[in-house]
Specification:
- The chain is α+β, with helices and mostly antiparallel strands.
- Among the domains are: 8-159, no CATH class; 275-310, no CATH class; 325-421, no CATH class.
- It has 14 helices and 14 strands.
- The strands form six sheets. The protein has a three-stranded antiparallel sheet.
- A hairpin with a 6-residue loop joins strand 8 and strand 9 (298-299).
- Helix 1 crosses helix 4 (67-80).
- The longest helix has 31 residues, at 8-38.
- Residues 14-345 form the DUF222 domain.
- It holds the Pfam family DUF222.
- Keywords: Endonuclease, Hydrolase, Nuclease.
- InterPro entries: DUF222, HNH_nuc.
């Protein structure tokens, strides 16, 4: 049957079946690649006898796949399968939980878990590594590989806090410029988390302002008569330009603002680098801090230094008698309330959405006008424009449990209406 003749439900069902089959095939390929690697360790091993320099090169030849894909299979197979020692004894797999779950989790997610935990395995306790592996595998069964990568980075921070942001990392920053034949110019830049935080904050503020800026065009019936322009979208609809172009424009605007400081079009006054840490870490400089928009933590001592150059919003809001709940007396969430919601949701609270706080607005879970929902933290969630419309137009509902927003799809999308976790990623919990 042609895919064009499938109903929506049939198309999605076949997608799920095909991905399930792919995971089973990938699991078997990984197991075989692990054995191929074990038999190809010596120069006269299996790969060498077939004229290949490595197991990955041999696997690429056998499967007619890229060297990088074959290398992923071989590395993952070697890490998740037991193998024999030189004396003939069996050495257990380094990541047995990942190996056991390969039929249920994707190859990419498994690679992210193994790669992240391998990078800290020499400096972390065995019990903690086992807890981290189990937690990441469980998370990977219900979440995308990109979300697994982000959570794995947080586990690395928890397992090896001393290894976060080494002193040599800022020295690796660079900017390369290449003139293209088309006349365009390509910029490639790498920054450490601290320096990137300032640039990200400025770009996100500019893009967020562009997203919420209304566009206007002449009214259709009166265009010839020169009638006044009318808005063609509200602040929650998709911007006229792709986000990548808006981000590029933001960098140019920053340069223009630096050259002509009287340019007030750049929303720099509203730009804030948000660094989150506990009060104890702020006072002592011991522990970790996080920067909004960055997957990796930084030492609290570095965050304290940043306080001299950027406004740091405290993680515990509502201090100094700030009012967080307004009940039904006001419709819009206050700035203080939004900061509290951002602290809880991290940006757009929708499951798997990575839009930063500057792209989002506070949404009433129980509508203020139609349902009498209060403008309280317990009734608010941060959403980007796309997912704000999904809530209103498609019939999703939201509730908060243990400070975590959960999104319930309508029956037209999921007949079981199984809630999906949103908000920030779960905090790593090390073994006792």
């Amino acid at each position: 049957m042609s895919s064009a003749t499938l109903t929506d439900a049939e198309l999605l069902a076949e997608f799920e079946q095909a991905f399930a089959l792919r995971r089973q095939v990938d699991a078997r390929l990984t197991e075989l690649a692990g054995e191929l690697s074990a038999r190809s360790q010596a120069s006269d091993g299996l790969a060498g006898r077939h004229g290949c320099t490595s197991a990955a090169a041999f696997a690429a030849q056998l499967g007619r796949i890229s060297q990088s894909s074959a290398g992923q299979l071989c590395r993952l197979g070697a890490a998740t399968q037991p193998h024999l020692s030189l004396l003939g004894g069996e050495i257990p797999a380094a990541f047995p939980a990942v190996g056991a779950a390969l039929g249920d989790i994707s190859l990419d997610a498994a690679s992210f878990i193994v790669g992240a935990l391998s990078s800290v395995s020499s400096r972390a306790a065995i019990d903690d590594l086992e807890v981290a592996e189990a937690a990441l595998v469980e998370f990977a069964t219900d979440n995308s590989a990109d979300m697994v990568r982000k959570l794995a980075a947080r586990w690395c921070d928890a397992l090896d806090p001393d290894g976060v942001l080494p002193e040599e990392l800022p020295a690796q920053r660079f900017l390369r410029r290449t003139q293209l034949a088309t006349g365009m110019k390509r910029y490639v830049m790498e920054l450490d988390p601290v320096n990137a935080a300032f640039l990200d904050a400025a770009i996100d503020a500019s893009v967020g302002a562009a997203i919420r800026k209304p566009r206007f065009e002449p009214a259709p019936d009166d265009a010839a008569a020169g009638a006044d322009s009318v808005p063609v979208r509200d602040a929650d609809e998709t911007p006229a330009l792709p986000l990548a172009q808006l981000a590029a424009d933001a960098i140019v605007d920053l340069a223009r603002h630096g050259i002509a400081c009287d340019n007030r079009q750049v929303p720099l006054p509203s730009t804030t680098v948000v660094v989150r840490m506990s009060l104890e870490s702020l006072q002592t400089g011991i522990g970790l801090a996080s920067i909004d928009g960055c997957d990796y933590s930084i030492p609290a001592a570095v965050a304290r230094v940043m306080a001299a150059d950027a406004n740091i919003i405290p993680a515990v809001l509502g201090a100094n008698s700030a009012i967080l709940d307004f009940g039904l007396s006001r419709r819009l969430f206050s700035t203080t309330q939004k900061l509290a919601l951002i602290d809880r949701d991290g940006g757009c609270g929708w499951p798997g959405c990575c839009r930063p706080p500057s792209y989002t607005e506070a949404h009433h879970m129980k509508w203020w006008m139609a349902d009498g929902g209060p403008t309280d933290l317990s009734n608010g969630v941060m959403l980007c424009s796309r997912h704000h419309h999904a809530i209103h137009d498609l019939g999703w509902t939201v509730f908060v449990e243990n400070n975590v927003p959960w999104f319930v799809p309508p029956s037209s999308i999921d007949a079981t209406r199984t809630p999906r976790r949103g908000g920030r990623l779960p905090e790593p919990a090390l073994a006792a």
